């Protein structure tokens, strides 16, 4: 009898110890609001929306201590609409992220699954559109051409992220095509680095996607998630931010090169005929934020985007000017209310484009304004 009680006590002790070395966390953001669009396909629009500014999502993350400073980790993130309860990211259960791997406090983390690329991980946090979890959907650069707003995630991805070394972090990702006899048919690879030391932050990243218009639906990118259907997309960017007291100032530069461009998803209704020759975008963004009080934050950004392209009508050089301002007020540690206004003006150069703020129906002219009022709750 004594041995039985002793065995039961030991089992309970080890069970508690194992439980103490493991953790699972449920978290998320719910963003709901109202927004006005000055020109959506030729008409003004008043609408209720989910994720007007920050994509609504929930997730589960966990880790288990394996000893020697190494942990098994996983993360599952679901994107959804508050207004109708539907799934986002093409109806995926875990469309934001889904991965598992190993992490070590000294050597970094190695993970496998559907994940963010290096542009999103390292450079996006210095931009206005990427400084919120889930992105700032109204402030993406035209067509989110550099993916700073995380329009697409990478499937079949193997990713390494270093541990911080004197303020320096770096990493790389490779998304497999998963196609026999077509190793580079719908694959993605990226690399990036960030440096944070005191008030200064620096970052740089590179991304390349091959054969995005491939019929290989099991590859790194899903065709319906991509803005561009092109033989190759390359993104290169760098940014810096500096904090002075309650203020923060930043600048981000990116260049996107598209080779063999077939079409731009969402822009076909504009009658834009691409001939597969190519197109490139150069984006320069300046942003600033100021913490007026511990509960009130004001922020703004301006982005100038120039592009060059060739289509059936010849060569064109459209240019975009975008401005966004936001006031964000903390109602509590978990809940805030925001007002944001975004304006876009396009010098179209007869290219067939019209103004098109991210997430909205394209305008029928060269100007578009969106004003959003909403609240976010974090849990």
Automatic annotation (TrEMBL):
Keywords: Cell outer membrane, Ion transport, Membrane, Porin, Signal, Transmembrane, Transmembrane beta strand, Transport. GO terms for molecular function: porin activity. It holds the Pfam family Porin_4. CDD domains: gram_neg_porins (cd00342). The keyword Flavoprotein does not apply. Homotrimer. This is Porin. The lineage of its organism: Bacteria, Pseudomonadati, Pseudomonadota, Betaproteobacteria, Burkholderiales.
